Amino acid sequence: MVVSAVELLKKEIPVEEESVCIADDVITGLVLVDIINGFCTVGAGNLAPREPNNQMMEMIDESVKLSRLFCEKKWPILAFLDTHQPGKLEHPYPSHCLAGSHESDLVPALQWLEKESNVTIRRKDCYDGYIGSIEADGSNVFADWLLVAGVCTDICVLDFVCSTLSARNRGFLPPLKDVVVYSRGCATFDFPASAARETKDGLTHPQEIMQHMGLYMAKGRGAKIAKDVSFGALK
Ligand SMILES: [Zn+2]
User: Fold this and answer.
1) Res. 142 pLDDT band, cuts 50 70 90
2) Residues 189, 207: contact at Cβ < 8 Å?
3) Is residue 71 one of the residues assigned to a domain?
4) In a domain, 16, yes or no
5) Which residue of 19, 31, 49, 126 pairs with 53 in a disulfide if CB–CB is 3.0 to 4.6 A?
C-alpha cells in the first residue's frame, strides 16, 4: 500500500478537531479572511485557482452559511480584503489583488455583505489582518469571541490567528476569550512541486499538506479547531 505524504503527516502530527457550540448570549465576531476573487475565483488573477477546486468551493459555501447566520443575529462580521497598490509587491508572490481591480473584491457569493449594517470591510495590504487593522492611534478592536474562516489557512488566516492570540495573551484584547478556526471554512491554494520548479522564486505549496499544517500551527498557538459549528444556549 502506498501511503501518501498527507496521510503520513496526519499520522505524525494529527490535528484534533472539535465540535464548537457558540453560546447565544455571548456576542461572537466572524472574521472572513481574503475571500476575494484574486484568491478564490477560477481564472481571476495570478494567485487565483486555475480550475475549480473542491476545498475552495467548500470554504466559500461554509463562509456564506456562517455569514447568513451572523447577519440574522446582527453579530459583527469583519471581512479582510487583500488589496495592494500597483508596484508594491508582496514577496515571494507575483502581483495580485490590486486596488480598484475585480481581484480585490469579495467573491460573488459574498458580495451582498457590502450592504449589511453589521459588516465591516477592511482592506489590508499585508498578510496579517491583525497588523492590517491597527489604526493610526494604535487602537485595534475586536469582538468578545472570534470565529475565523477564509484563505489561505497557512498564510493570512494563520498570521491573523497568531497575532490575535499573542495580543490576547498580553491582555491587549479584553474581553476576547477564544479564537476558533473553522476547518471546512478555510482553504489554501495548490501549487505542486512540478509547477514550482518551472517558476522563478516558486515555492512549492501542496494544498492538502499546507491546509493540514496551517490548522496544526494555529492549534499550536492556542486556537480551537472546529470541525463543525453550532449555535445554542451554553450548557
Ligand atoms: Zn497580498
Assistant:
1) low
2) yes
3) yes
4) no
5) 49
What is the 45 CA–ligand 1 centroid distance (Å)? 12
Number of domains in the chain: 1
What residues have a C-beta under 5 A from ligand 1, the ion? 82, 90
Asked if residues 114 and 106 have their Cβ atoms less than 8 Å apart, the reply is yes
CA distances from 176 to 29, 110, 135, 149, 215 (A): 10, 26, 19, 17, 20
* Distance between Cα 53 and ligand 1 center (Å): 20
55: domain CATH number is: 3.40.50.850
Domain interval for residue 147: 25-227
Q: Which three cell numbers stand for residue 8?
A: 503520513
**What pTM did the predictor assign?**
0.93
The answer to whether residue 6 is domain-embedded is: no
Tell me, what's the pLDDT at 137? 82
